[in-house]
Design goal:
This protein is an all-beta fold. It has one domain. The chain is built from no helices and 5 strands. It has a 3-stranded antiparallel sheet, with no helix packed on it. It has a two-stranded antiparallel sheet with strand order 1-2. The chain starts with a strand and ends with a strand.
């Protein structure tokens, strides 16, 4: 069964639903472009001991 969770894009305020790959570990960080406004977000996924995902995001900072 595929799990899903959502975060709110900091650039446009849209709620974005994403699939969660539990096989990738309990802590995941990656960059994903918002499908609405195309701005990049750093997505943080944490999966608790019961397998429930929690997702947050922040805008990607230019280096």
């Amino acid at each position: 069964m595929q799990q899903h969770a959502s975060y709110v894009c900091d650039s446009c305020g849209e709620a974005i639903e994403i699939p969660i790959d539990v096989s990738a570990g309990s802590r995941q960080d990656y960059v994903e472009d918002c499908p609405v406004c195309c701005n990049p977000n750093v997505v943080h996924v944490t999966i608790d001991a019961h397998g429930r995902p929690s997702v947050s995001s922040e805008p990607e900072q230019d280096h």
